């Protein structure tokens, strides 16, 4: 960044977007989000009110970090998911717009809401806490094996005023007995690790997000193979499980579901790519 004359907010955003285009597919958006964070305002305020003001000094540092592949959410410490703000750290997966598909599907299945929600691998808590926010009468459990991630989820539950209805618990579905005493749920959501181990990911993902939240063996299906056979025992009568998948995993995950006694269906995200498998007991 130019250290010379002070730039206006608009100039600084334009310059930053040019620089970030070398390493980011969302350069202009990144620059705007970082500027809004630097100014402590929302992105819409930025466009309407602040374009003539001088850019704050801290913006240049943020842009440098982003240019060096740090995710925007790690610089701002926050990511919106389904319109709610979630705190994120390098201990948690950054919530993805793709995962909002699971929230839409859950609302379609339970138009009047569901009572008990389980989120397996809750990370920031985004799936569980969004459901509890949308369904004021629901209660839920978020299972997470990473202690620092549990701390983030708990913090998000508090910040969203949902702590009284959200039980964030330790658990690892690869270990015997992890689900003892959990009870049964009307809705189970999970965005498990599903990336092929060794896959060529963007540096911002590979170097900054937790490998344990991403990778699941040579074909990316290891967690589904362990998790899905355990789901029937966790579903209440009339209950439904919805798991996120990679866009080429629909058939394979549906087959695992069918072997476990489910009638599976594959669902697409807004981009029209397979993104979720719904599992209803047969
Ligand atoms: N449930 C969290 C999310 O959807 C975390 C998922 C994960 O860590 N694999 O973002």
TrEMBL record:
GO molecular function per UniProt: peptide chain release factor N(5)-glutamine methyltransferase activity
Lipid biosynthesis listed as a keyword: no
Entries under Pfam families matching the protein: MTS, PrmC_N
Record's catalysed reaction(s): L-glutaminyl-[peptide chain release factor] + S-adenosyl-L-methionine = N(5)-methyl-L-glutaminyl-[peptide chain release factor] + S-adenosyl-L-homocysteine + H(+)
Keywords recorded for this protein, A-Z: Methyltransferase, S-adenosyl-L-methionine, Transferase
Domain Release factor glutamine methyltransferase N-terminal: 11-77
Binding, substrate: 191-194
Class of this enzyme: transferase
UniProt binding sites for S-adenosyl-L-methionine: 121-125, 144, 173, 191
EC number: 2.1.1.297
Keyword Methyltransferase among record annotations: yes
Methyltransferase small domain: residues covered: 109-199
A biological process from GO: methylation
Alphabetized InterPro entries for the sequence: DNA_methylase_N6_adenine_CS, HemK-like, N5-glutamine_MTase, PrmC_N, RF_methyltr_PrmC, SAM-dependent_MTases_sf, Small_mtfrase_dom
Family listed: Belongs to the protein N5-glutamine methyltransferase family. PrmC subfamily.
Function: Methylates the class 1 translation termination release factors RF1/PrfA and RF2/PrfB on the glutamine residue of the universally conserved GGQ motif.
Protein's UniProt name: Release factor glutamine methyltransferase
